[in-house]
Amino acid sequence: MKTLNKTLALIALASSSAAFAATDFDTLDVDGNGAISQSEAAVDAKLMSQFSELDTDGNGELSKQEFAKA
């Protein structure tokens, strides 16, 4: 039973990690306005750590061009 629980936990962890790892511009742009806001970027820790550096025009959003530099 412990092996089954460990296996199920590992599968759940792998699938949730894959969901966050597979983030692209269109997936992150939840509202479809053509830009990624800080709240939309918050689901990706790596992107959030680079957000202010990538936001070269300082408007608080990432355009496709800015996101492409990530």
From TrEMBL:
Domain EF-hand per the UniProt entry, residue ranges: 42-70
Record keywords: Signal
Signal peptide segment: 1-21
PROSITE patterns: EF_HAND_1, EF_HAND_2
MF (Gene Ontology): calcium ion binding
Top-level division of the source organism's lineage: Bacteria
Protein known as: Calmodulin
Gene source species: Pseudoalteromonas arctica
